[in-house]
Amino acid sequence: MSGWPRRRGTVEHPVVERPEALRWLANQSCITLHMWQSRRARLDHPDRLVFDLDPSDGDFAVVRATARATAGVLGDLGLACYVQTTGSRGLHVVAPLRADTDFDTARQFARDVSEVVAADDPAHRTVEARKDKRDGRVYLDIMRNAYAQTAVAPYSVRARNGAPVATPLEWDELDAGRLRADRFTIRDVPKRLAGQPDPWAHMSRHARSLAGPLRRLARLRA
Protein backbone atom coordinates (compact mmCIF):
# COMPACT_ATOMS: atom_id res chain seq x y z
CA MET A 1 0.00 0.00 0.00
CA SER A 2 1.08 3.56 -0.61
CA GLY A 3 -0.31 6.69 0.98
CA TRP A 4 -0.61 10.29 -0.14
CA PRO A 5 -1.31 13.19 2.23
CA ARG A 6 -4.56 15.08 2.43
CA ARG A 7 -5.57 18.00 4.61
CA ARG A 8 -7.19 15.62 7.07
CA GLY A 9 -5.10 12.49 7.12
CA THR A 10 -3.81 10.09 4.49
CA VAL A 11 -5.50 8.08 1.74
CA GLU A 12 -4.00 4.67 1.00
CA HIS A 13 -4.01 3.03 -2.43
CA PRO A 14 -2.77 -0.42 -3.45
CA VAL A 15 0.38 -0.52 -5.57
CA VAL A 16 -0.28 -3.27 -8.09
CA GLU A 17 2.93 -4.75 -9.48
CA ARG A 18 2.29 -8.50 -9.48
CA PRO A 19 -0.50 -10.87 -10.63
CA GLU A 20 -1.14 -11.73 -6.99
CA ALA A 21 -2.10 -8.12 -6.32
CA LEU A 22 -4.59 -8.19 -9.18
CA ARG A 23 -6.14 -11.36 -7.79
CA TRP A 24 -6.41 -9.70 -4.38
CA LEU A 25 -8.26 -6.77 -5.95
CA ALA A 26 -10.59 -9.14 -7.79
CA ASN A 27 -11.37 -10.81 -4.47
CA GLN A 28 -12.38 -7.38 -3.15
CA SER A 29 -15.00 -7.22 -5.95
CA CYS A 30 -12.97 -4.60 -7.82
CA ILE A 31 -14.00 -4.64 -11.49
CA THR A 32 -12.76 -1.46 -13.15
CA LEU A 33 -9.23 -0.34 -12.28
CA HIS A 34 -8.25 3.32 -12.43
CA MET A 35 -4.68 4.53 -12.22
CA TRP A 36 -2.79 7.72 -11.42
CA GLN A 37 -0.77 9.56 -14.07
CA SER A 38 2.33 9.42 -11.84
CA ARG A 39 4.38 6.79 -10.03
CA ARG A 40 5.06 6.22 -6.36
CA ALA A 41 8.62 7.60 -6.49
CA ARG A 42 7.45 10.98 -7.89
CA LEU A 43 3.77 11.34 -7.16
CA ASP A 44 3.70 15.04 -8.03
CA HIS A 45 5.33 14.59 -11.47
CA PRO A 46 3.14 12.90 -14.13
CA ASP A 47 4.73 10.43 -16.52
CA ARG A 48 1.89 10.59 -19.04
CA LEU A 49 -0.71 12.95 -20.43
CA VAL A 50 -4.27 11.74 -20.97
CA PHE A 51 -6.79 13.31 -23.34
CA ASP A 52 -10.22 11.80 -22.68
CA LEU A 53 -12.37 12.23 -25.80
CA ASP A 54 -15.97 12.12 -24.67
CA PRO A 55 -18.70 12.08 -27.36
CA SER A 56 -22.05 13.76 -26.87
CA ASP A 57 -23.85 11.49 -29.33
CA GLY A 58 -23.37 8.22 -31.19
CA ASP A 59 -21.22 9.50 -34.07
CA PHE A 60 -17.99 7.65 -33.31
CA ALA A 61 -16.39 8.80 -36.56
CA VAL A 62 -16.06 12.27 -35.04
CA VAL A 63 -14.34 10.79 -31.97
CA ARG A 64 -11.87 8.96 -34.19
CA ALA A 65 -11.16 12.12 -36.18
CA THR A 66 -10.62 14.05 -32.96
CA ALA A 67 -8.18 11.41 -31.72
CA ARG A 68 -6.15 11.71 -34.90
CA ALA A 69 -6.20 15.50 -34.71
CA THR A 70 -5.04 15.44 -31.08
CA ALA A 71 -2.23 13.05 -31.93
CA GLY A 72 -1.29 15.23 -34.89
CA VAL A 73 -0.85 18.33 -32.73
CA LEU A 74 1.05 16.41 -30.05
CA GLY A 75 3.28 14.83 -32.69
CA ASP A 76 4.07 18.23 -34.20
CA LEU A 77 5.07 19.38 -30.72
CA GLY A 78 7.45 16.43 -30.34
CA LEU A 79 5.49 13.91 -28.27
CA ALA A 80 4.80 10.25 -29.02
CA CYS A 81 1.10 9.33 -28.90
CA TYR A 82 -0.91 6.22 -28.12
CA VAL A 83 -4.63 5.50 -28.29
CA GLN A 84 -7.06 3.16 -26.56
CA THR A 85 -10.77 2.53 -26.40
CA THR A 86 -12.14 3.33 -22.97
CA GLY A 87 -14.59 0.43 -22.85
CA SER A 88 -17.25 3.04 -22.11
CA ARG A 89 -18.03 5.87 -24.57
CA GLY A 90 -14.90 7.39 -26.05
CA LEU A 91 -11.18 7.14 -26.68
CA HIS A 92 -8.08 8.09 -24.72
CA VAL A 93 -5.07 9.65 -26.44
CA VAL A 94 -2.01 9.23 -24.21
CA ALA A 95 1.47 10.76 -24.45
CA PRO A 96 4.25 9.28 -22.24
CA LEU A 97 6.39 11.82 -20.35
CA ARG A 98 9.74 11.76 -18.54
CA ALA A 99 8.16 13.02 -15.31
CA ASP A 100 10.21 16.22 -15.35
CA THR A 101 7.39 18.68 -14.72
CA ASP A 102 4.61 19.12 -12.18
CA PHE A 103 0.91 18.44 -12.62
CA ASP A 104 -0.11 22.08 -12.89
CA THR A 105 2.25 22.64 -15.82
CA ALA A 106 1.22 19.39 -17.52
CA ARG A 107 -2.49 20.12 -17.12
CA GLN A 108 -2.12 23.64 -18.53
CA PHE A 109 -0.19 22.21 -21.48
CA ALA A 110 -2.97 19.67 -22.07
CA ARG A 111 -5.60 22.42 -21.84
CA ASP A 112 -3.74 24.57 -24.38
CA VAL A 113 -3.36 21.62 -26.77
CA SER A 114 -7.06 20.83 -26.46
CA GLU A 115 -7.95 24.42 -27.30
CA VAL A 116 -5.82 24.21 -30.46
CA VAL A 117 -7.52 20.94 -31.48
CA ALA A 118 -11.01 22.26 -30.74
CA ALA A 119 -10.40 25.53 -32.58
CA ASP A 120 -9.47 23.59 -35.72
CA ASP A 121 -13.01 22.11 -35.91
CA PRO A 122 -15.31 24.01 -33.54
CA ALA A 123 -18.41 22.49 -35.13
CA HIS A 124 -17.46 19.04 -33.84
CA ARG A 125 -15.06 19.62 -30.91
CA THR A 126 -15.22 21.56 -27.66
CA VAL A 127 -13.38 22.17 -24.41
CA GLU A 128 -16.64 23.13 -22.69
CA ALA A 129 -17.02 21.04 -19.52
CA ARG A 130 -20.74 21.69 -19.07
CA LYS A 131 -22.77 19.13 -20.99
CA ASP A 132 -25.56 21.58 -21.76
CA LYS A 133 -23.06 23.75 -23.65
CA ARG A 134 -21.43 21.07 -25.78
CA ASP A 135 -24.13 21.09 -28.48
CA GLY A 136 -23.46 17.51 -29.58
CA ARG A 137 -19.71 18.00 -29.92
CA VAL A 138 -16.83 15.81 -28.71
CA TYR A 139 -15.49 17.07 -25.37
CA LEU A 140 -11.71 17.09 -24.97
CA ASP A 141 -11.45 16.36 -21.25
CA ILE A 142 -8.01 17.06 -19.76
CA MET A 143 -8.98 16.85 -16.09
CA ARG A 144 -7.30 13.46 -15.69
CA ASN A 145 -4.03 15.43 -15.71
CA ALA A 146 -4.23 16.63 -12.12
CA TYR A 147 -2.67 15.38 -8.91
CA ALA A 148 -4.56 12.36 -7.52
CA GLN A 149 -6.87 12.18 -10.55
CA THR A 150 -7.20 8.81 -12.25
CA ALA A 151 -7.99 7.32 -15.64
CA VAL A 152 -9.14 3.84 -16.57
CA ALA A 153 -6.22 1.41 -16.75
CA PRO A 154 -5.35 -0.40 -20.00
CA TYR A 155 -7.13 -3.76 -20.26
CA SER A 156 -9.45 -2.92 -17.40
CA VAL A 157 -12.95 -4.41 -17.60
CA ARG A 158 -15.96 -2.13 -17.41
CA ALA A 159 -19.00 -3.01 -15.31
CA ARG A 160 -21.30 -2.74 -18.33
CA ASN A 161 -23.31 -5.10 -20.50
CA GLY A 162 -20.99 -7.46 -22.34
CA ALA A 163 -18.03 -6.64 -20.06
CA PRO A 164 -16.21 -4.32 -22.50
CA VAL A 165 -12.49 -3.75 -21.97
CA ALA A 166 -10.40 -0.58 -22.26
CA THR A 167 -8.15 -1.73 -25.10
CA PRO A 168 -4.91 -0.21 -26.47
CA LEU A 169 -4.96 0.08 -30.26
CA GLU A 170 -2.60 0.49 -33.15
CA TRP A 171 -3.32 3.80 -34.87
CA ASP A 172 -4.41 2.14 -38.10
CA GLU A 173 -7.12 0.28 -36.16
CA LEU A 174 -9.03 3.54 -35.87
CA ASP A 175 -10.04 2.98 -39.49
CA ALA A 176 -11.91 -0.25 -38.72
CA GLY A 177 -15.60 0.19 -39.48
CA ARG A 178 -16.73 -1.80 -36.43
CA LEU A 179 -14.61 0.15 -33.96
CA ARG A 180 -16.44 1.64 -31.01
CA ALA A 181 -15.46 2.41 -27.44
CA ASP A 182 -16.93 -0.91 -26.28
CA ARG A 183 -15.78 -2.95 -29.29
CA PHE A 184 -13.53 -5.33 -27.31
CA THR A 185 -14.72 -7.48 -24.40
CA ILE A 186 -13.35 -10.06 -21.98
CA ARG A 187 -14.33 -12.70 -24.54
CA ASP A 188 -12.07 -11.48 -27.34
CA VAL A 189 -9.22 -9.52 -25.69
CA PRO A 190 -7.32 -12.69 -24.66
CA LYS A 191 -7.44 -13.94 -28.27
CA ARG A 192 -6.41 -10.50 -29.49
CA LEU A 193 -3.32 -10.46 -27.26
CA ALA A 194 -2.44 -14.02 -28.25
CA GLY A 195 -2.43 -13.00 -31.90
CA GLN A 196 -0.64 -9.65 -31.81
CA PRO A 197 1.71 -7.66 -29.55
CA ASP A 198 0.36 -5.21 -27.02
CA PRO A 199 0.44 -1.80 -28.80
CA TRP A 200 1.46 -0.11 -25.54
CA ALA A 201 4.14 -2.63 -24.52
CA HIS A 202 7.04 -0.25 -25.14
CA MET A 203 5.33 3.05 -24.39
CA SER A 204 7.81 4.06 -21.68
CA ARG A 205 10.70 3.89 -24.16
CA HIS A 206 9.15 6.82 -26.01
CA ALA A 207 8.66 9.09 -23.00
CA ARG A 208 9.68 12.67 -23.79
CA SER A 209 10.47 15.74 -21.74
CA LEU A 210 7.74 18.36 -21.80
CA ALA A 211 10.24 21.24 -21.97
CA GLY A 212 10.57 21.29 -25.77
CA PRO A 213 6.85 20.82 -26.49
CA LEU A 214 6.04 23.67 -24.08
CA ARG A 215 8.30 26.04 -26.03
CA ARG A 216 6.89 24.92 -29.39
CA LEU A 217 3.32 25.29 -28.18
CA ALA A 218 4.04 28.81 -26.93
CA ARG A 219 5.33 29.76 -30.39
CA LEU A 220 2.30 28.14 -32.02
CA ARG A 221 -0.13 30.14 -29.90
CA ALA A 222 1.80 33.43 -30.04
UniProtKB/TrEMBL annotation:
<protein>
    <submittedName>
        <fullName>Eukaryotic and archaeal DNA primase small subunit</fullName>
    </submittedName>
</protein>
<dbReference type="InterPro" id="IPR014145">
    <property type="entry name" value="LigD_pol_dom"/>
</dbReference>
<feature type="domain" description="DNA ligase D polymerase">
    <location>
        <begin position="7"/>
        <end position="200"/>
    </location>
</feature>
<dbReference type="InterPro" id="IPR052171">
    <property type="entry name" value="NHEJ_LigD"/>
</dbReference>
<dbReference type="Pfam" id="PF21686">
    <property type="entry name" value="LigD_Prim-Pol"/>
</dbReference>
